[in-house]
Amino acid sequence: MSTSTLAPDLVLPGSQANLHGPARARDLGDFMEATRGQRIDSDTCKLLTVPPSGGIADSPSHGTSMLGTPVRCPDYTRVRNVETVPDLTCEIYNKTLVASNGYCLHLRAYRKESQGSPTKVAVKIFRVVLGEILKALKRELRVWKSLNHRNIVPLLGLVSEKLGPGLVTPWYSNGNILQYLRRVPNVKREPLCEDVARGLRYLHEQDPPIIHGDIRGANILVAMDGRAVLCDFGLARILDSGPAGFPSFTIGCTLRFKAPEEFANDLEGGSIPTDVYSYACIYAQIMTGEPPFHWHRTDPPIMRAICRGELPYKIDSIVSRHDLGFLGPSWDADPSCRPTMSHISRILGIPEGAP
């Protein structure tokens, strides 16, 4: 993966040649795979950025595109409170694609600071920008920006890009928790599980409670001090909203972490009991290194197993002083019988009221 530090937001070597490869195909997935870890030149981007029907109208304001070229910025004042979630479009530069999936692009970038050196940030660009999804995005981002907890990824602001709106958060060099555990397999795992519990308990204790809706390894990052932090809460509900939304268990490949009632009811992104079910799954995955239902390799048998109420792990195979206290009850087929995150935190030895 190529990394250049503070060079201008410009082109790949031989950018004209690039137009005859991935860009000519007009397929964003193929293009992103071909350009992973590289700069994307302006001409290539133009071939891939036809505004979707029903998207945000242009406003008279101007900003900087993901390639550093001047563009007319969408008017996000229609869908959010600018003072609450700052527009960082003109402060973000030197962007490099690091990953992509069905609904967004993940970029590494830098943010200009008024004092001191630029800081590295992560930018998530959404490819789905229809009006109903933007309204949901507005609600979730206002909530996210107001949160302050050491186990919650802070939202820094928004960016306006030709490919869609984007979120800006700090850059976590350790990656997500599964990547971290593969690199540092001998690290103590119980503190990571406790960090996730603290963050999820904090969300559930808000008034009204905040449902994460997509607890899994990819949505748990690890800070430089080894602390686990939750990200992307509420985004499953955004992606499920409106006719252009995608089922969250499809795009995120989170089927293994879904509670049985999520297939029987329209929960619009989950509930407190489904978060608890998913937390028990990620706890077991962190402790064992195996995903839920690891004996199944494809989705159909996993879905059948979940709907039959089968447990995602064999509890007696999980070696931990905590497992018998909450894992079994957390996977109860009756959501009302599952413990709360406050109860689980007490079992894990996290003091009441501790941050």
UniProtKB/TrEMBL annotation:
One Pfam family this sequence matches: PK_Tyr_Ser-Thr
Organism domain of life: Eukaryota
Entry's Gene Ontology molecular function annotations: ATP binding; protein serine/threonine kinase activity
Gene3D superfamilies, per database record: Transferase(Phosphotransferase) domain 1 (1.10.510.10)
Ranges annotated as spanning the membrane: none
ATP-binding as UniProt keyword: yes
Record-given protein name: Protein kinase domain-containing protein
